[in-house]
Amino acid sequence: MTDRYASFVQTGAGRALVKRLGLPDPPRLRRHTPGDPLVPGPVLLDSAAGGRLAEPVGKILTAAGVELADPAAVTAATSRFAALVYDATGITDSTGLRQLYDFFHPQARALLGSGRVVVLGTPPAECGSPREATAQRALEGLTRSIGKEFGRGVTAQLVYVTPDGDAGTPVSLEATLRFLLSGRSAYVSGQVIRVGAGTATAPADWDRPLDGQVVLVTGAARGIGAALARVLARDGARVVALDVPAAGDALAAVVNEIGGSAVQLDLTSPDAPTRLAEHLAGRHGRVDVVVHNAGITRDKTLGRMDADRWDSVIDVNLSSQERINDVLLARDLIPAGGRIVSVSSIAGIAGNRGQTNYATSKAGVIGLVDSLAPVLRERGISLNAVAPGFIETRLTARMPLVLREAGRRMNSMAQGGLPVDVAETIGWLGWPATGAVSGNLVRVCGQSLPGA
Fold first, then answer.
1. Is residue 427 a contact partner of residue 444, using CB atoms and an 8 Å limit?
2. Do 314 and 438 share a domain, yes or no?
3. Residues 188 and 312 in one domain
4. What range does the domain containing 112 cover?
5. Which residues of the chain register pLDDT less than 50?
6. Is 45 helix (H, G, I), strand (E, B) or coil?
7. Would you say the pTM of this structure is higher than 0.85?
8. Cβ atoms of 86 and 46 closer than 8 Å
9. DSSP state for residue 448 in the 8-state scheme
């Protein structure tokens, strides 16, 4: 589906009209193309006094071919940056928050279009004192506000890094920085990501971070699922694409395009988890990444909703994920270092009129991550969720015009996201290098205002 308004404002007449009337101004977002440099310009990296991450992050970025600017040589009048990265781990009480102002105030207009802001902190629960935890929690307000203020496609994220990690922590920190600084994260902003301990392996080639991995994608025939299958294959994965038999032709077209394999299966069938497990065991012997993308909507206000609408949405969107996880884990088909990614929705965070069944199921997905991730961490398996906002798909194309336009404009990017934006985020969470990123909910919503 084409956003005609966003296309119009990129024209000369459109830009003039937007400026004159103060209309929403959707920027042209920087998205990933294979072979792109990590960032299209220099990065300014600085640190609060006593920060513990600036040095290792500097080494990571330099090794990735990033040009680091010298903070001492920066002049606000002439310097322009592709990203601002600030190590705030040295801030141990509220008075130290002034250092954030001192860094960001002179650079507020120094970012290029589609620039990136990344703030690094310590998880408040792992701080050494209540004052330090207070100061570190304050970083969330800073980054979310920057994401709404800087405009022009700029994104802002907070990455909490555990101070007592293991060998997987720096690998997952690098993977997270590579995702957040690149065009892969075009529609991700205002997010808080936690990097802890876990099994993580750096790829031989960061352009193919899923090389040799077996990845299962449910609901792969259309929309986000089809985009996901393409992104995963591009990044080196062997994709097992699953959808219902009724979508067989569309599913075949996807797998033929990417060189994957297809499984036609109704996940609500009682024997579906067993049949899926037997297929994976027989064809591949394992599954490295499981992506629970399959989902349905059956919209009605609760007072008018029949029981079948309620039951079918809960079963497909939530219960089927639990059943599949149970069987794959019981049969040890997901090895240590494996990843599970579940698709939630901002409806599961903020609710939505006429979607009590859908919002309940998607909130349940968040609960699944919260409850199961600590258990799976003991097995070396990560579990995360993504929550898409307004994404341009055939489903949103059928929305009433006013609601569709509101969904597009009520976010920091003033536009809807694309299926590839969700796919890139899921792909990143599936990288072997992100094994120490677990228990996270990452919104792919352009920093949507509802539920923010």
1. no
2. yes
3. no
4. 25-195
5. none
6. strand
7. yes
8. yes
9. B
160 carries an active-site annotation:
no
Structure-block tokens of residue 222: 């259309």
Helix pair 223-234, 419-430: axis angle to 10 deg: 50
Q: Are residues 255 and 398 in the same domain?
A: yes
Residue 402 structure tokens:
């006013």
For residue 126, the model assigns a pLDDT of: 98
* DSSP one-letter string for 281-316: HHHTS--SEEEE-------B-GGG--HHHHHHHHII
If asked whether residues 164 and 134 sit together in one domain, one would say yes
Q: Tokens standing for 423?
A: 């796919």
291 strand-pairing partners = 217, 341
Tokens coding 360: 């309940």
Residue from 44, 48, 41 nearest 71 by CA: 44
| 125 and 157 belong to one structural domain | yes
The phi, psi pair for 326, rounded to 5°, reads -60, -45
* Same domain, yes or no: 95 and 157: yes
Element (H, E) at 324: helix 320-330
- pLDDT digit string (tens) for 414-434? 999 999 999 999 999 999 999
Strands (E), 21-135: 43-47, 68-69, 81-87, 111-121
DSSP string covering 209-264: TTTT-EEEEES-SSHHHHHHHHHHHHTT-EEEEEE-GGGHHHHHHHHHHHT-EEEE
Distance of alpha carbon 186 from its chain centroid, rounded? 10
Q: Is residue 4 part of a domain?
A: no
388: enclosing H helix or E strand: strand 382-388
Domain count, the chain: 2
Please give the span between the terminal C-alpha atoms of the chain, in angstroms, as a whole number.
26
Q: Give the Cα separation of 391 and 9 in Å (integer).
A: 19
CATH code (residue 182): 3.40.50.720
Catalytic residue among 86, 160, 187, 358: 358
pLDDT value of position 20: 80
Contact present, 84 and 111 (Cβ < 8 Å): yes
Angle at which helices 168-181 and 54-63 pack, to 10 degrees?
60
